[in-house]
Design goal:
globular, alpha+beta, 11 helices, Alpha-Beta Plaits, single chain
């Protein structure tokens, strides 16, 4: 049968190496899937695929071995999966209407992990509703603390949940456990002066390690939710690099709006002569100041938010003539 590969990829099906076969990509925002959907996924894998399920690096599911002519039938079956996350599919028969914004990944967050500062699943699912469907190739991930288990520094937008420690001097016994922990494991942001704990706002990264180590509960997580936003990390063949810090101590609304504003920025500056252009290369071409000013336009920043004045993006250009020489010299 004749297949429009561009259309099936947009409909969240993969072009596979086996002729006549495809793989369904199922979005799992935040990596969180209700168990009630597992029988449906198994049915599709067994009935239409080859009986296997691949867990993708972006926390989605891929069901390989599907015949192209079964796509309309499968799209009807997966409609409950699409609707479960509050998405509004454009296809009247179900299925995914876009694949540009990749599945938004997240660590398990504070629903389970004691190190996590916020509910990463809730934020990832909110971003899914804000950004999907969309045809731009964005990669977004949310991590519950600066341990960065989700590898936020390898994304276009890496969201790191942080907290501002709240100190109750009356409960403090001056054991120095928090100071020693921060010195050994983090940035050395804490010190003790006259039996009182002092915190450097410039050095504190909001990880919450001191809170976990305090034996008396003198340090607790603040009620306000803060985030660090790192940007323009990427893998790939041309110039892979880690994301760099853009915002610190930002609130959730700012983070969400910056990502949404980036859609307008990309649509204005993307090179449409290319099949697709990664956002990081657009920022490289236009310059960081142009990106910064465009995506922060109209946003009322939290008074504590810090913005990177300049980012010197680096990377690893694959120029073998520069970095390597043969063993023979």
């Amino acid at each position: 049968m004749s297949v429009n590969t561009k259309e099936i990829k947009k409909n969240a099906y993969r072009v596979a190496k086996t002729r006549g076969k495809t793989a369904l990509r199922i979005r799992v925002p935040g990596g969180h899937l209700e168990a009630v959907f597992l029988p449906l996924i198994k049915e599709i894998a067994d009935t239409y695929g080859n009986g296997t399920i691949h867990l993708s690096t972006r926390q989605g599911l891929e069901l390989p071995g599907i015949d192209f002519d079964k796509i309309p039938e499968i799209n009807k079956k997966i409609r409950p999966l699409v609707e479960a996350y509050g998405l509004c599919p454009e296809h009247p028969d179900g299925g995914y209407p876009a694949s540009g914004v990749r599945n938004i990944a997240a660590c398990i967050g504070n629903r389970v992990c004691p190190f996590a500062n916020h509910d990463t699943t809730a934020l990832a699912q909110r971003l899914e509703r804000e950004m999907f469907p969309g045809d731009l190739h964005f990669k977004i991930a949310v991590t519950g603390c600066p341990n960065d288990c989700i590898k936020a520094h390898m994304q276009d937008f890496g969201i790191i949940c942080t907290t501002e420690p709240q100190y109750d001097e009356k409960r403090c016994i001056s054991c120095n456990s928090c100071v020693e922990t921060c010195e050994r494991r983090v940035t050395g942001a804490l010190s003790q002066e006259d039996f009182t704990i002092k915190r450097s706002h410039e050095l504190c990264i909001g990880c919450g390690e001191c809170i976990l180590k305090c034996p008396t509960g003198a340090l607790t997580r603040g009620k306000e939710h803060y985030f660090s936003l790192v940007i323009m990390g990427r893998t790939g063949k041309k110039n892979p690099r880690l994301a760099q810090a853009f915002l610190e101590w930002a609130d959730e609304e700012t983070v969400v709006q910056v990502i949404k504003n980036t859609v307008r920025f990309v649509e204005e500056h993307i090179d449409r002569s290319l099949p697709k252009e990664h956002i990081g290369y657009i920022v490289d071409r236009t310059g960081y100041p142009a990106f910064r000013d465009a995506v922060l336009e109209g946003i009322k920043l939290h008074p504590k938010t810090r913005i990177a004045e300049f980012i010197a993006f680096d990377g690893t250009p694959y120029r073998r003539d520069i970095h390597f020489k043969t063993a023979s010299g």
